[in-house]
Automatic annotation (TrEMBL):
Family statement: Belongs to the ATP:guanido phosphotransferase family.
Species name: Tenuibacillus multivorans
Domain of life: Bacteria
SUPFAM superfamilies documented for this protein: Glutamine synthetase/guanido kinase
Top-level EC class: transferase
Residue intervals passing through the bilayer: none
UniProt-recorded name of the protein: Protein-arginine kinase
Length: 354
């Protein structure tokens, strides 16, 4: 896997596998925030200290393999163009915050892109691990093993009472952020999300858009994650999140049954109109594309559309975003040019399946 694969290929290899409850849960993610002992946090440390962190990661882990996570490659933000960094954000391999650290920011990415380790973001390390579908327990197990691999070669900043010490107080303790990416079109159509989100928040969890904090739920895709990291074990945090996610899955399935019973032909019409827009449009904006892709995904999951694999939709959700679109075009595009190119690209990908 080369840097150009990370940047140019919209669909990460691990997304080619369908996981548990994949009609609703696209992916499960575990993120661990870690810092080195006696080294200033990135938010307060000087450039020289952060460069030492980066050099250590480069020497110890670049081109290394751990279990199924093969050939980690270190990608430095200073080596990337702005559009390339944005492409990595659109694939969830880095955060927007890391993309802004052009001096000492970097990311270790495994060959299949299932694991990525952000270096010198808010913390020295942010270890991320993804699994397709609803696989939080397995993701936690593998993330802890990956975490041990790093800890065997260094010493983390750790306090017996507080746990892992982090730049942001909300991450102190386990340093764990567990999240699932969910497709919730029926709950959105029936306006139940407006009531559901505050109820989830009361349980110490948070619901965000597709790119995390401050982002909107494009294509009815929502991230549900924990907020508290202190006072609970990693296993308890994950179990609490799993319990809530299971309830959301059940609610979404009931809502899908309801709209099918109540709307019937109108729902079918909406889904096939969206497919028609994707298959025939000459100009389409990103928000409209995301909405139509959501409708078509729902149509596939409800058995209405049978000739389009969901992997194509996963690819198009990333490929039609501004940075990837321009990477694919191999040139900068004005907004109106992107809308034309996006429509052409969607038609091309859908026709490949006929």
């Amino acid at each position: 896997m080369t840097l150009q694969n990370f940047i140019n290929d919209a669909l990460s290899p691990w997304l080619n596998t369908e996981g548990i409850d994949n009609d609703i849960v696209l992916s499960s993610r575990i993120r661990l925030a870690r810092n080195f002992e006696q080294v200033p946090f990135p938010t307060s440390g000087d450039t020289a200290a952060m460069e030492k962190v980066l050099q250590f990661i480069d020497q110890e882990f670049n081109q290394q393999t751990f279990q199924d996570f093969k050939q980690f490659q270190l990608v430095k933000m200073s080596d990337l163009k702005p559009i390339e960094k944005r492409g990595l954000v659109e694939k969830h391999l880095i955060s927007p915050n890391l993309a802004e650290n052009e001096q000492t920011g970097a990311v270790l990415i495994s060959k299949n892109e299932q694991a990525s380790v952000m270096v010198n973001e808010e913390d020295h390390l942010r270890i991320q691990l993804y699994f397709p579908g609803f696989e939080l327990t397995k993701a936690l197990e593998k993330a802890e093993q990956l975490d041990d691999w790093f800890e065997n070669r260094t010493r983390y900043a750790f306090d017996e009472k507080r746990g892992y010490l982090t730049s942001c107080p909300t991450n102190v303790g386990t340093g764990l952020r567990a999240s699932v990416m969910m497709h919730l079109p029926a709950l959105s159509m029936t306006n139940q999300m407006n009531n559901l989100i505050p109820e989830i928040n009361k349980l110490g969890l948070v619901v965000r858009g597709i790119y995390g904090e401050g982002s909107e739920a494009l294509g009815q895709l929502y991230q549900v994650s924990n907020q508290m990291t202190l006072g609970k074990s990693e296993e308890d945090i994950v179990e609490d999140l799993k319990s809530v996610v299971k309830q959301v899955i059940e609610s979404e399935r009931r809502a899908r049954e309801w709209i099918m019973e109540q709307l019937g032909i109108q729902l079918e019409d909406r889904i096939f109109r969206s497919y028609g827009i994707l298959a025939n449009s000459r100009v389409i904006q990103s928000k409209e594309a995301a909405k139509c892709l959501s409708d078509v995904r729902l149509g596939i999951d409800m058995g209405m559309i049978k000739n389009v694999p969901k992997t194509i939709l996963n690819e198009l959700m990333v490929l039609t975003q501004p940075a990837f679109l321009q990477q694919y075009a191999k040139k900068q595009l004005a907004p109106n040019e992107r809308d034309v190119f996006r429509a052409n690209l969607i038609r091309e990908r859908l026709q490949l399946e006929h």
